[in-house]
Design brief:
Layout (H helix, E strand, L loop, with lengths): L15 E4 L9 E4 L10 H7 L5 E4 L3 E3 L2 E3 L3 E3 L2 E2 L1 H22 L5 E5 L1 H12 L6 E5 L17 E7 L7 H13 L3 E7 L7 H14 L6
Parallel strand pairs: 2-3, 2-8, 8-9, 9-10, 10-11
Antiparallel strand pairs: 1-3, 4-5, 6-7
Length: about 220
């Protein structure tokens, strides 16, 4: 944690890293790692796609054979939806506490794989927690989410045409779910597998620059 934590700040329940902004007006990013990652994994990506932005990077609190994740799964691509909902609310509460502690505006989530899926779950369950999202290799996290709205929330979805984990119809269904709630969804399918490529980084950087807004607390 950084030394910018405010006195009498609320308890922060996730192990995390925080890097304060060095550029006035930069939109803060919430970095959400994939299975087996931790709070340091996406910091270099965050610095590349949003130079000077504040970076908040929590570690998932679920362990699968020693690998951190943000929620439980029953098998590859089969999620424990009750746990998804519980963990999405816990993460949204952490974001609120971190915003108070560090003086942040609502962040844009940048999530990869499991991290993208928990970000999508927050968009569906706790839309007030995020100002937008970059979802890298995301799937539908909850088959029948409760009603909600995302009026004008910008979302970039980057899928891989050769991804063995995320079926194209599943990614398309997530884009449709978010669009139906009013989100401004840009979905792109890249010539890639499940791993990230230079094209992902360029697309994410351009998207963040396009939607950037003053990051006043």
């Amino acid at each position: 944690m950084a030394s910018t934590l405010k006195r009498d700040a609320p308890a922060l329940t996730f192990t995390h890293r925080f890097e304060p902004a060095t550029l006035v007006g930069a939109t803060p990013l919430l970095l959400l790692h994939g299975t087996g990652g931790d709070e340091t994994d996406l910091l270099p990506l965050g610095r590349m796609i949003a130079p000077g932005a504040a970076l908040l990077s929590p570690r998932g609190q679920v362990s699968e054979a020693g690998m951190p994740r943000f929620f439980r799964r029953l098998a590859e691509g089969v999620f424990d939806e009750q746990d998804v909902a519980r963990r999405a609310h816990e993460l949204a509460d952490f974001i609120g506490a971190a915003r108070t502690a560090y003086g942040l505006a609502a962040p844009v989530a940048v999530g990869f794989s499991n991290g993208a899926n928990i970000a999508a779950a927050m968009l569906l369950l706790r839309p007030e927690a995020l100002a937008g999202a970059v979802l890298l290799r995301a799937m539908v996290p909850i088959a029948a989410p409760p009603a909600g709205t995302l009026p004008g929330t910008p979302v970039l979805m980057l899928s891989g045409a050769m991804d063995p984990i995320v079926p194209p119809e599943n990614a398309a269904r997530l884009a449709a779910l978010l669009t139906a709630r009013g989100a401004l969804v840009e979905q792109r399918t890249l010539p890639a597998s499940h791993g990230l490529t230079a094209t992902d980084l360029t697309a994410a950087r351009d998207f963040i620059a396009r939607i950037g807004r003053p990051g006043a607390a």
